[in-house]
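Bench log. Compound arrived from synthesis this morning; before running ITC I wanted a structural hypothesis for how 5'-deoxyadenosine sits in the protein. Inputs:
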Amino acid sequence: MHRATFPQVRVMTKKLYIKTYGCQMNVYDSERMAEALDGYEQVNSPDGADMILLNTCHIREKAAEKIYSELGRYRGLKEANPDLKIGVAGCVAQAEGEEVMRRQPLVDIVVGPQSYHRLPELEAKAARGEKALDTDFPEEDKFEKLKTRPKAQRGPTAFLTVQEGCDKFCAFCVVPYTRGAEVSRPVARVLAEAEDLVSRGVREITLLGQNVNAYHGADGGETWGLARLIRRLAEIDELKRIRFTTSHPNDMEDDLITAHGDCEKLMPYLHLPVQSGSDRILKRMARKHTAAEYIRLIERIREARPDLLLSGDFIVGFPEETEEDFQATMALIEAVNYGQAYSFKYSSRPGTPAAERAEVDPEVAADRLQRLQALLTRQQKAAQDAMVGREIDVLFEKPGRLPGQMVGKSGYLHAVHVTGEVAVGQISRVRITESGPNSLGGTLL
Ligand code: 5AD
Ligand code: SF4
């Protein structure tokens, strides 16, 4: 049929560019913000956009400085299009508030992570030429208020936020301040959102929370823990895989450990940060457990699920960390054997207790980070290489770089590519034949 035979109706959609920094929670939030802003379509570049949103992270380093320099780059776009609205969302917005607009007058909207459901009002205010700011911690469930557009088909994997905020107050961390106290979404809402995602093609859901294993969602008069929620989600037929991130060792309760052994849909991958292997530093970090307790916990989880791939977070150069403390962290890593990990040089966060303490020489910290990462990289490579020869299930997500290639994920979260006929969203049996720098290669069985 000729294009010209279609009636020339054009819906006026404005263009929305979102740049997301930081954690998976922000990725999820950015999706919800895009859905909330009716009349906007999301684009991949700030050029020609009608609204630019930076969804920011404040966890480490000079995060705020990065945001200001990014904002400065939009000056030309704003001059070319005075109607362009620029917004700052996420944890920098929460931490800095009005200061963002004072330092960078280009900014029209500042919105904290608990106020995204108010974005349409903030956008309307900005459209009237007023500055719009909301960094409250309201009582209502922001996700409930965020309007979802009519059923768009989704890719096979999705995030679902079930819990936000943190009550742990680790001495180095801004999260309890920027994201506030722990709040769990009620069971019924999580289930409804999961059902909706599955009806739109999702086959794997990662449950998100700053401290997700502390989930305690209300169901009528009862409270559900994370394990019970996972078991209930596993009853959704078309949902094939469940993951959760990120967890605190002290909230790893017995039923969650058991679930790793007997809930088939719960994937054999666990991100369980320990931060340090030195009891002295753990204490100063206010982690409230020892290295030995953590190692024992890992043993128990591995008893339930022997092939579990373990992931962690580490901070080196925490104030007053000595070489001996650092060696204790290296020894813990040796004892645990991680398949994957994130590691960071300590960075002082204003307002946190650790910010008051004497810092380690940056060069010493950099050297420790290098040694720690060398060890973690070796373990990661060994875990990946050990997959060669195994037959595993892969959930296929998208075409690969080469013609005829498809890429998906193993249960252990390794990227796996194959050549052959397999649909997006399909789970197929694959024999792993090679281990490359960042992915595994295999053949379809
Ligand atoms: N400095 C360095 N790393 C940090 N993290 C959190 N706060 C800091 C900080 N001030 C790391 C922790 C946490 C991860 C999300 O970020 O390892 O688990
Ligand atoms: Fe931050 Fe995690 Fe500690 Fe909470 S448990 S304060 S989010 S590091």
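What the model suggests: Residues 166, 168-170, 173, 175-176, 210-211, 248 surround iron/sulfur cluster (ligand 2) (CB under 6 Å). The chain has 15 helices and 21 strands.
ITC booked for Thursday regardless.
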